[in-house]
C-alpha cells in the first residue's frame, strides 16, 4: 500500500509542476511575440534569485539546516530576438542552397571517380 501511495504522490507532484509550467507559459504569453518573451525573461532574472534566497532562508529557519550561499547567476547580454532571427536566417539559407550544393558535390564526386578510374 505504501509504495502505491508514494508513486501516486510522485505522479501528482510531477503533474502539478508540469501543469504549473504550462499555465505560466500561457499566462505570461511566452510563446507570443519575442518582445513580450524578452520582457518576461528580464523580469524573471530580477525576481527568481530573490525568491530562491527567501525560500532558502525560510527552510533554514524551519529545519535548522545551514544552506551554503549560492554564487550569483551569470549575466547574459544578448537579445533573444536577434539571436533567434539570425539562427532562423542561417538555417533557412542553408536549406535553400542544399539541393544545389548536393548537386554540385555529387557532380564533383562523379568527376573525381571518372578521373580515378581512367
TrEMBL record:
Predominant location of this chain? mitochondrion
Q: Outline the subunit composition.
A: Component of the mitochondrial contact site and cristae organizing system (MICOS) complex.
Q: Which organism is it from?
A: Lipotes vexillifer (Yangtze river dolphin)
Protein's UniProt name: MICOS complex subunit MIC13
**What subcellular compartments does it reside in?**
Mitochondrion inner membrane
Q: Which residues form the signal peptide?
A: 1-18
| Role played | Component of the MICOS complex, a large protein complex of the mitochondrial inner membrane that plays crucial roles in the maintenance of crista junctions, inner membrane architecture, and formation of contact sites to the outer membrane.
Read off the Pfam families from this record.
Answer: QIL1
Its GO biological process annotations read:
cristae formation
Keywords, sorted A to Z: Membrane, Mitochondrion, Mitochondrion inner membrane, Signal, Transmembrane, Transmembrane helix
Family indicated by similarity: Belongs to the MICOS complex subunit Mic13 family.
**Membrane topology according to the record:** Single-pass membrane protein
Cellular-component GO terms for this entry: MICOS complex; mitochondrial crista junction
